[in-house]
Amino acid sequence: MDPKTLFCLPEGDALFNPLNTMFIQMACILVFSQFFYLFLKPCGQAGPVAQILAGIVLSLLTIIQKVHDFFLQKESASYYIFFSFLLRTCFMFLIGLELDLDFIKRNLKNSILITFGTLLSCGIIWIPFLWFLVHFLHIKQDFLTFYLAFLVTLSNTASPVVIRSIIDWKLHTSEIGRLAISCGLFIEITNIFVYTFVISYISGTMSGDIFGYIFATGVIILINRFLAAWLPKRNPKEKYLSKAETLAFFILILIIAATIESSNINSTVFVFFIGLLFPREGKTYRTLINRLSYPIHEFVLPVYFGYIGFRFSVSSLTRRHYLVLGMTVALSIVGKLLGVLFACSFLKIPKKYWLFLSTVLSVKGHMGLVLLDSNLAYKKWFTPVIHDMFVASLVITTLLSGVLSSLLLWTQEKGFSHQKTSLEFHDTKDELRVLTCVYGVRQARGLISLVSALHGASSSLFTPYLMHLIPLPKKRKTELLYHELDEDGVNAIGGDDEFGTNEGLEINDSIDSFTRDRKIMIRQVKLVAQMENMHEEICDGTEDLRVSIVFLPFHKHQRIDGKTTNDGEVFRDMNRKVLKQAPCSVGIFVDRNITGFHQLHGFESVQHVAALFFGGPDDREALSLCHWLTSNSQIHLTIIQFVADDSKVEKLVGDTVTKENNDVLLEIVGEDHTKDEIDRIFLEEFYNRFVTTGQVGFIEKRVSNGTQTLTILREIGEMYSLFVVGKNRGDSPMTSGMNDWEECPELGTVGDFLASSNMDVNASVLVVQRHRHSFDSFVDE
User: Fold this and answer.
1) CA-to-CA distance for 69 and 413, rounded, in angstroms?
2) Cβ atoms within 10 Å, residue 693
3) Which end of the chain is more exposed for a tag (fewer CB within 10 A), N or C?
């Protein structure tokens, strides 16, 4: 082979090969976009805005003749088209992989109505404007394709731009952020379908090809499902698939995508559905997410967005075209605004989200350009003026929408912040998001048992996360280079016993076993940090993931002989710091896996759980957590209320007070009327909802001091496999004297006793601390 061809060297008098200049252009886009992002990020702007601006700047530099000749060579178009196809295939497959299917299913109606609302409003608005454009641009033929191109291109929503922006704004775990992502995908896919089928109808030759490719895509999906289950069995001791095995999936996807594109049919939807229907559990899924996420989000998408800006050009437009350009941009935004407002009003979505949703769904992207440049045989109206006007309107609309969306977020920051930071006012019909933190497989198994118990009924909305905490040593023993270490930072050649080991592999195996048995997907997060900063990273993670409670492992574990061993004071200090700074409720799980709480997904026996209620915000939070235990058929829950002897307990008066609702009130009058009134109302609601229906047991214990409380706790210590109790800061007559031999104050008085190795309690213990709100601080403390 000719060396010039092999190394992409220029031919003739050319200084650079088009392939070389394309890579230089990509590097320039990445550098410029990082420069713009440094200044725009503090203003709340998302990454795509900076990256599109970088492309515009590079496009403006082509005014210089030498720069123009360098970047825009005659043969460069084919290179751009091919690499655009590769990049588009990669990130659409990843979007399908990362999409929250459970949320899509729950909000299918909302997404569909908003999609059709925006398309209908845009279609109606464009009808009179189309008549004006036809005369203004002197269109003589192919009116249908002109209207179709205008409608699809300017009513479209660029889902990659929406996704990247939502992630940058840290809204990807919020309800409105996920709704925006799903609506963006629905709008884009609908537009592609409409465009493809109209063009196939006009051509009269594509219909058979489309159905053939749908069948071929289904075959690829089945092959992927087979490979995803078979490949992990070849090397069960490896944490991830090999690079060669990963490449096999991409070869299949590229083959089907290239075949579809060769027939002048857009392959985006087909590739997206291949990713969407890929198995969501196991080693194969983790491997693809691990190896695709970083390069695509950090390199592929910035280049792709930059290329949108690079297409920007107004050189062929005159002054009279600028007015039409402004009208096009305005109508594009207004059409989306009206469609979203009508749909949101019908769906009763909170008004604070209406403007944000309409602006973020107005962003355009490269997909509009792809549809604009395709099937030119049926677009005899296509001219450089129309092309530049289309592209300029797409770029300007996207920049305006991005800026307006960020301004709305900035002005309504509180309205978009995470609100469900505790469980007391959390409706069980809403999604429960929890984060479990583990250092190794020992803690993972116990906390997975807790996750299994909380899931309860299969219809409940439950999103669990597992964060693998990897303490980073201050100085590595190994002298190997970074690329010689594996994904956990471990010596990939000889191993390093003090860092990483095989805990990650064993945790993955435990999660895979749990997922197969319980059909619950646990989303994994890895956190590598020094112990001094670990608590800050955990708190940031809880805020980003928008969880209502985070579970931490106790710093001691039970040995096989039943005794407890201290894992280290550094873990205890970390727990204390999280308890102090966490932006949500916190639970510390004392796992006695030998004698206490067992993995529900591996056993058919019923687990007996006791919730201890002394009163106060932490006990209310612990009892609120038990709401999700009541629907689990393998959990028998009993509420044990401790009542001070000096309190006056009246008889159950449900028939006389709330006879119409068949409620039963337990009247408690204590010294602090305000605090006891809150506890009474809360306990009354729980009693009427679960105890009177027979779902939960209820026991009342009257005590006058801590000694009597200790006696009762010892009596019931062997009756239950799990105790759930609030931390309960502050003194109480019922626990007086119990803190004289306190070992772990961070567990509270009762929790510390139950967790102590010196007491005859073999059950696991979950100590809950509620996140303090300003109102709660005023009332309860």
Assistant:
1) 47
2) 9
3) N
The contacts of residue 615 (CB under 8 Å, 6+ apart) are 670, 675, 676, 679, 728, 732
Neighbours of 235 (CB within 10 A): 13
Q: What angle do CA 474, 478, 481 make, to 5 degrees?
A: 100
CA distance linking residue 752 with residue 734, whole number of Å: 15
Rounded Cα–Cα distance for residues 462 and 456 (Å):
9
Q: Which residues pair with 636 in a beta bridge?
A: 608
- Are the C-beta atoms of 724 and 606 separated by less than 8 Å? no
d(CA 676, CA 672): 6
Q: What are phi and psi of 532, to 5 degrees?
A: -65, -30
For the segment 514-536, the average pLDDT, to the nearest whole number, is 88
Say if CB 230 and CB 282 are below 8 A apart.
no
How confident is the model at residue 493, as a pLDDT?
37
Chain-centre distance for alpha carbon 210 = 33
Quote the Cα angle for 532-533-535, to 5°: 105
Compute the distance between CA of residue 697 and CA of residue 683 in angstroms, rounded to an integer: 13
What's 569-582 look like in SS3?
A: HHHHHHHHHHHHHC
> Is a pLDDT exceeding 60 seen at residue 633?
yes
The CATH number of domain 421-472+501-646+669-767 is 1.10.10.10:
no
Quote the CA–CA distance of 491 and 482 in Å, as a whole number.
9
Residue 655 contacts residue 665 (beta carbons within 8 Å) = no
- pLDDT digits over 263-316, tens only? 878 888 899 999 999 998 889 999 999 899 989 988 888 988 888 888 888 777
Token representation of residue 232: 């992990």
Residue 680's pLDDT band (boundaries 50, 70, 90)? confident
Q: Which of 393, 30, 359, 332 is nearest to 165 (CA)?
A: 359
Greatest mean pLDDT among 13-27, 214-228, 370-384? 214-228
CATH class of 17-413: mainly alpha
249-to-90, 225, 274, 292, 494 alpha-carbon distances in Å: 11, 11, 10, 12, 30
Torsion angle of C-alpha atoms 541, 542, 546, 550, degrees rounded to 10: 140
pLDDT of residue 339: 92
SS (HEC) of 281-319: CCHHHHHHHHHHHHHHHHHHHHHHHHHHHHCCCCCCCCH
Q: Do domains 17-413 and 421-472+501-646+669-767 have the same CATH topology?
A: no
Q: What percent of the chain has pLDDT over 90?
A: 28
Determine contact, residues 617/779, Cβ cutoff 8 Å. Answer: no
Domain coordinates in residue numbering, the chain: 17-413, 421-472+501-646+669-767
Closest residue by Cα to residue 448 from 522, 506, 519, 516:
522
The residue among 634, 552, 635 whose CA lies nearest residue 586 is 552
Task: Mean pLDDT check: name the lowest of 17-26, 33-42, 390-399, 708-717.
Answer: 17-26
DSSP state of 739: G
Look at the block and give the residue holding tokens 């978009």.
416
State the Cα–Cα distance between residues 313 and 605, nearest whole angstrom.
70
* DSSP H/E element including 206: none
Smallest Cα–Cα separation from 362: which of 409, 404, 414?
Answer: 404
Per-residue pLDDT of 548-599, as tens digits, reads: 999 999 988 877 766 778 888 899 999 999 999 999 999 999 988 766 677 6
Neighbours of 441 (CB within 10 A): 19
pLDDT band, residue 768 (cuts 50/70/90): very high
Of 375-379, 452-456, 586-590, the poorest mean pLDDT is in 375-379
3-class secondary-structure state, position 585: strand
- The pLDDT tens digits of the residues spanning 712-740 come to 888 888 888 899 999 875 567 777 777 77
Looking up tokens 């009163």 gives 615
Which residue spans within 650-740 are E strands per DSSP? 668-669, 697-703, 722-726
